[in-house]
Design a protein that fits this description.
The protein is built from one helix and eight strands, in the order H-E-E-E-E-E-E-E-E. By secondary structure, it is of the alpha+beta class. It folds into two domains: 30 residues, no CATH class; 93 residues, Sandwich (Immunoglobulin-like). A hairpin with a 2-residue loop joins strand 6 and strand 7. The longest helix is centred in the first third of the chain and has 20 residues. About 7% of the residues have low confidence.
Length: 150
C-alpha cells in the first residue's frame, strides 16, 4: 500500500497567490507595456523600496542596481521624500547581439509619504552595492533641500 504525505491546506498561501495575480493585473493596466510589438517589451521602471523606523530615524532603502550615483537625486520637503534618477542602457553590446533583454532602463521617480516631517538638513543618503539608503531623522521642517549622496 502506498502512503502519501498530505500537506495541510494553508488559506494564507492562497491569499498571497491571489494578491500577486491582482497586483500583476493592476500593473498591466496602470503601467502598460511601452512597446508591445517587441519580443521582450519593457515596462516603466519603479524601483522597489523598504521603509522602516529605527529609533529616532526613518530608513528608506531603494534597490537601484546599475544606476550611477551621480544620476540619483534625493529631495525631502515636509514629509514627502522623492527619489528620482536614471539607469542608462549598456551601449557596449550591439542590439542584434542580445538573445534576451529583460532589464528596464530609463528614468524613474518615486515619492514616499513619511509618517513625520523631518529636518532636511539632517537627512543622510548613502549608496552602496546598488542600494540607496536614506536616513531621515524624525523632527520637523518645512523647506525642501537637495541631499548629497555619499
Amino acid at each position: 500500500m502506498m502512503h502519501m504525505n498530505l500537506a495541510p491546506w494553508n488559506p494564507a498561501s492562497e491569499m498571497v497567490g491571489i494578491r500577486d495575480r491582482i497586483n500583476r493585473l493592476f500593473d498591466d493596466f496602470f503601467y502598460p507595456q511601452t512597446a508591445p510589438e517587441e519580443p521582450f517589451p519593457f515596462r516603466n521602471w519603479h524601483p522597489s523600496a523598504d521603509i522602516y523606523e529605527n529609533g529616532n530615524d526613518i530608513i528608506v532603502k531603494a534597490e537601484l542596481p546599475g544606476v550611477d550615483k551621480k544620476n540619483i537625486h534625493v529631495e525631502l520637503k515636509g514629509n514627502l521624500l522623492t527619489l528620482r534618477g536614471e539607469r542608462s542602457e549598456d551601449k557596449e553590446v550591439n542590439e542584434e547581439n542580445y538573445l534576451r533583454k529583460e532589464r528596464v532602463y530609463g528614468k524613474f521617480e518615486r515619492t514616499f509619504t513619511l509618517p513625520e516631517e523631518a529636518d532636511p538638513n539632517a537627512v543622510k543618503a548613502n549608496y552602496k552595492d546598488g542600494v540607496l539608503t536614506v536616513t531621515v531623522p524624525k523632527t520637523g521642517a518645512q523647506k525642501a533641500k537637495q541631499i548629497t549622496i555619499h
